[in-house]
Amino acid sequence: MVQAKALTKRFGEFEAVRGIDVEVRRGEAFGFLGPNGAGKSSTMRMIACVSPRTDGDLKVLGLDPDKQGPRIRARLGVVPQQDNLDNELTVRQNLQVYGRYFGLSRAQVRRRAGELLEFAQLSDRADAEVEPLSGGMKRRLTIARSLVNDPELLLLDEPTTGLDPQARHLLWDRLFRLKAQGVTLIVTTHYMDEAEQLCDRLVVMDGGRIVAEGSPAELITRYSTREVLELRFPPGQVIPAERLADLAERTEVLPDRILLYAGAGEAALEQVHARGLRPLSSLVRRSTLEDVFLRLTGRTLVD
Ligand SMILES: Nc1ncnc2c1ncn2[C@@H]1O[C@H](COP(=O)(O)OP(=O)(O)OP(=O)(O)O)[C@@H](O)[C@H]1O
């Protein structure tokens, strides 16, 4: 669906995307995970044929965005980072206007709008104005609108940023449904749980480069331990990192806590207690993509 080789985007002197290689296969949910400024949106905008590449090769649906942008766009759905719905129109009209734009007849538009309202779980709001809708509803409507042309490939730039957990889960559920219908998804996100839930495969981006690639489970196995012991100490107390280092394969000291990467977290915690250390709280959890990112970059995703 997408083949990029040494794909590069420069803004003047600044290189936002630094020669990345990416391949997205039909039917998969593929993710770009990285913090703000990593180059995810710049990459997405090149794939969406709205921003030309500066260098490298790019094929989307086997076509060249420089020469065949309109043909590609006709088969794509694009969900931008910011909702750009028409607040003057109702929910249904937002879908209908887009349908007309894609050249559907009035009858086709009516039918498609009905299907999409159902998909977005907004049938009961069809004739409501857009402005007072919740953030989650607006997001679902934006996604529904991007599906008007029945795209093979759907690009979602930070689909759930700013949504509460319930709205995020509802939205993920809709995306799973699309995937089950065979739509290829490409998602950018700085939420590691979103990447872990949604993506079959992903690349971790930082500073315009790809720093790792694989399925969430592969990345965790490759770059982290099975379990992590998180210890918090009272404010102002120096974290006794040197007294804990031998309990784990690796430790990370963050401003408010220390992370001990150990195969068996409970056993490590027993040792902590046996050494007379009394953390304010302790938590044994499995490793996540956040741990992978920390390992690869020395920073947390939300820095
Ligand atoms: N039009 C532009 N002109 C100049 N610099 C830009 C432009 N667009 C993006 N950049 C810069 O390129 C870098 C990558 O931006 P990009 O939006 O691709 O990152 P991102 O990973 O999507 O982060 P975010 O989540 O903030 O969108 C940033 O440093 C940004 O300031």
Summary keywords:
303 residues; Alpha-Beta Plaits; globular; binds adenosine-5'-triphosphate; 2 domains; alpha/beta; six-stranded mixed beta sheet
How would you characterize this protein structure?
Keywords: Antibiotic resistance, ATP-binding, Cell membrane, Membrane, Nucleotide-binding, Translocase, Transport. It is a peripheral membrane protein. One of its GO terms (biological process) is response to antibiotic. This is ABC transporter ATP-binding protein. Pfam families: ABC_tran. With 303 residues, the protein is of the alpha/beta class. It folds into two domains: 2-214, P-loop containing nucleotide triphosphate hydrolases (Rossmann fold), CATH 3.40.50; 225-286, Alpha-Beta Plaits (2-Layer Sandwich), CATH 3.30.70. The chain has ten helices and 13 strands. It has helices spanning 40-47, 65-73, 91-101, 106-119, 135-146, 165-180, 192-198, 216-223, 265-274, 289-297; strands at residues 2-11, 14-24, 29-33, 55-60, 76-79, 153-157, 184-189, 201-206, 209-214, 227-232, 250-254, 257-262, 281-286. The strands form three sheets. Strands 5-6-7-3-8-9 form a six-stranded mixed sheet, sandwiched between helices. A four-stranded antiparallel sheet has the order 11-12-10-13, covered by helices on one side. The longest helix is centred in the middle third of the chain and has 16 residues, at 165-180. The two termini are 32 Å apart. It binds adenosine-5'-triphosphate (ATP). The site of adenosine-5'-triphosphate has 12 residues, from strand 2 and helix 1.
